[in-house]
Fold this protein.
Amino acid sequence: MRRRRRYAWAFLALAGMLLGVYHNHRVHHGEANLITALIRGLLTPLQRTAQSTTENAGQLLATLTHAREALREYDHLALENARLKQELEQMRAVAAENESLRQLLRLRPQLAGEWQGCRVVAVYPQAGQQTLIIDRGSRDGVMAGAPVVAGEGLVGVVERADATTSIVRMLIAPRMAVSVRVLNAQKASTGVCEGRGESMLLLNFIPPEAPLQAGDRVVTAGLGGKYPPNLTIGVVERVWLDRQYSVKKAWVRPAVDFERLGVALVKRGR
C-alpha cells in the first residue's frame, strides 16, 4: 500500500517535471503553450462573466442611488407644494376677508344707529341648529334681538348675548321670518322669507298676480323696524303657485355664504 502511494507521488512528480520541461521548451522556442492556452481558455469565460457581473452590480448600485436621490427630491417637492398650497389658501382667505371689509365699509353709511364690527369665531351649520358665534357680547352693548349683517347681506339675529360673545341665529334657521321686497323689473312685490332649516329660504305670501320670476333680487322691506331696509336677502331660484292658498311661493338662495363668513356688523342696543 505504501509502495503504491510512493509510486503515485513519484509519478506525479515526474509528470510535473516533464510538464515544466515541456513548458520551458515551448516558451524558449517562442511556441504556444497548449497547457497555458487550455487554462486561459477555461479562465477567460469565467473572467468575462465576473467582469460583466461586476459591471451590472455597479449599474444596479448607481440606479439605486439615483432612485434614492429621486425619492428625496420628490419628498422635498411634495413638502414644498404643500407649503405653497397652504400659503395660497391663507392669501385667498385674507383676500376674501379684505373684500368683505370693503363691502362692510360701503354698507355702513346705509345703516341707522350704532353698529360695530365683529368676527365670526365659530359656525354650526347643522340642520336644526344653524347658528354662529361672534366675538361681541353684552359688554360691547350687544343685546338679544340685534340684527347682524355682512357685506353680502343679512346674516341673522342675536339669539343670546353673553359677556364677550353672542350666539346668532342664521337667516336660514327654522322659525326665522323676515319681511321682504322682491325687485322684479315690472313691479316690486312684498312677502315674507322664512327659514326652513335648509340651504334655501322659502319666499311666501306673494300675491298670485305678482310678476315674480327666477333671478329677481330679494331685499329686506324694513317693516317693523327690526331689520334695516334694502339689505340683500338673496336671489329667486324657482317660482310656483300655491293654489290652495292662492299665493305665489319661491325658493330663494341666500346671498351670504354662512360657512365662509369671517367678519360682520352687529347693532348695539335695540
